[in-house]
Design brief:
With 94 residues, the protein is mainly α. 0% of the residues are buried. It is flat, with a radius of gyration of 27 Å.
Length: 94
Amino acid sequence: MSIEPLLRKATIKAIDGVSKKVATAESKAARKAASLLAQWDALSTEEKEHAATIAIAAVTTAVAAIVAMRRAAKSPVKTAVKTVAKRIVKRGKR
């Protein structure tokens, strides 16, 4: 008995399941986007400017946080090199 037909059926079933989930998510996202655009159209110019300012501030803060985290994150290689260098310096002082 070959396992190939079972794998083929399982693959088709898995892809069908993912396809249905993606289609559902896509339709929900489209409805949500339409709802948000309808709300946006109802806002006054002043309210739109206020919302844009908040959005810009939020994105700027998020980008700054990501940059800060990347600077703080040390690569394992750099950490290992520093550790070895410190040990060599300590041995040399003895």
